[in-house]
What we know:
Elements: E1 2-3, E2 10-11, E3 13-16, E4 19-23, H1 39-52, E5 58-61, H2 70-89, H3 97-109, E6 112-113, E7 119-121
Parallel strand pairs: 4-5
Antiparallel strand pairs: 1-2, 3-4, 6-7
Amino acid sequence: MPAAPRSPADSVWRLDERTLFVGDLVNSGMHAYLTDGYASEGLTHLRQLEQRILDRSALYIGQDEPGGTELIAAQSRYVSTFVAAVEKSLTLPESERAGGVRVAARHRLGPLTSPRGRTSVTAA
C-alpha cells in the first residue's frame, strides 16, 4: 500500500489481516510531518487506508505506541485542520501569519507533541 505525507514513495506493510505497520502516515497525538508539502496526498492515502483495512486492526506507527483504526480519522482531522489554518493565515499580513496558524490550530487540535516529546500546539 502506498503512503504519504513524508514522501510519495513510503509504504504501509501488512503483517497479517489485522496488523499493519503504517510508519509516519499515521501519528498518535503528535505533530504530523508536513514540511515537504504532501498533505493532500497524505489525506488521499489515509482515506484509501481506512477503506482497505478491517475494523479493530492494530496500527504500528513510526513515532509512538501502536493504536487502532481510530488513529486514521484523528490524523485526517489533524492534517485537514492544520492545512486550513495555514491557508487562512496566508490572508493575514506576513508579520501575523505564524501566530494565526497557532491560534487557529489551538482551537481545534488540542495538545500535541513533537517527535522529541515537546508540546507543539496546546489548547487555549
